[in-house]
Amino acid sequence: MSEPVTIRCRENGPYLVLGVVSILDHLGKPFTPPPGKDTIALCRCGHSKGRPFCDGSHRTCGFQAAEHAPG
Ligand code: FES
């Protein structure tokens, strides 16, 4: 059985997807992840020019998110 996929919130940054996944658009067509990356980073600041993937724009747009899981 394969490892479960983990999604990790980066402080003031993207969601890191750890594991093998397919990212599909609303029509079910797959996105091609950026080449040369072992981990998929999904934009959550809304400023990436390559959405749904993070392009590093969160560093310059003032995005802040540092949620902590309860417990
Ligand atoms: S989270 Fe990185 S560009 Fe949006």
For the biggest sheet, the summary is:
3 strands, antiparallel
What proportion of the residues is helical, as a percent range?
Answer: under 10%
Radius of gyration: 13 Å
Bound molecules: FE2/S2 (inorganic) cluster
Helix-strand topology string: EEE
Poorly predicted regions are none
Rounded average pLDDT:
94
What is the CA–CA distance across the termini? Answer: 29 Å
Question: What is the strand and helix layout of this fold?
Answer:
Blueprint lengths: L5 E4 L5 E4 L21 E3 L29
Antiparallel strand pairs: 1-2, 2-3
Bound molecules: FE2/S2 (inorganic) cluster.
Question: Nutshell version of this structure?
Answer:
With 71 residues, this protein is an all-beta fold.
What does this 3D model show about the protein?
With 71 residues, this protein is mostly beta strands. Strands 1-2-3 form a 3-stranded antiparallel sheet, with no helix packed on it. It has strands spanning 6-9, 15-18, 40-42. The protein has no helices and 3 strands. The structure holds FE2/S2 (inorganic) cluster (FES). Residues 13-14, 43-45, 47-48, 54-58 line the site of FE2/S2 (inorganic) cluster.
